[in-house]
Amino acid sequence: MTYGPAMAAAYNRGRGLHPRDIERWMTAAGPYLPSAGGRILDMGAGTGRFTNALAWFSTATVVACEPSAAMRDVFRAGSPHAVLVGGAAEALPFRARTFDAVWASQMIHHVRDLPAFAAELRRVLQPNGHLLIRGGFGPPTELPFYRYFPRAWTESKAALVTLDQITGVLSEAGFAVTAHVRVEQTYANSPEELIEKAATRSLSPLADLPDQLFEEGLAALRADAAEGRIAVPVVEQLDLVVLSQPAPPAPAGTTSAPQH
């Protein structure tokens, strides 16, 4: 899908995270991020939800890359001092071995050519660098909106990309899965917040849903809220999958320096 001005303007209302949840994600990611002197690529940074947090928690230099011009406009309005460039995942505008880690939050389903993205990741990452993928790879039935918009997750192209498919392509490119954890976050603290987030259609599966089905689901959500049938806070669990890029083997005929 393409993020135009309307979607970009609504994105933070629909996809904003509570500060304590950002801290949970940074705590989970921390062991795989470089510290001062290192570099992190925030790929598919969107409006910059994680860019400043990555810099704050790691103390590394963070560069954000976002293909949508509309999303970049919103990003710059909120984080005018952050380093942000335009670029596609399949053709990253960076030199080889620029980054120690790549943070890819809920963007990999937008990648049109996974093998090309995998090759680019190998190119821009340092040996022993880490790729951190944040996303929802569990059963769709556990997601907050599934009961109201089931076809959004059973028919959406964005929702049909599985973790096995993603890690399979990355493994063929030389990456190895080193960690997989689930992180709980609060999606909404009230029924009103849940309705507002749904109404933005900022989740790709909801954006792909036919308008009539979306309106029917939104009406059902509002009816449940009016009848007090929504337990709050509404929480969800998403995945953090960490892959490493092993250092290349030493050229044949070379030996390590003697230890003294």
UniProtKB/TrEMBL annotation:
GO terms for biological process: methylation. Keywords: Methyltransferase, Transferase, Ubiquinone. GO terms for molecular function: S-adenosylmethionine-dependent methyltransferase activity. The keyword Transmembrane does not apply. Residues 41-133 form the Methyltransferase type domain. Gene3D superfamilies: Vaccinia Virus protein VP39 (3.40.50.150). The keyword Transferase applies. Pfam families: Methyltransf_11 (PF08241). CDD domains: AdoMet_MTases. This is Ubiquinone/menaquinone biosynthesis C-methylase UbiE.
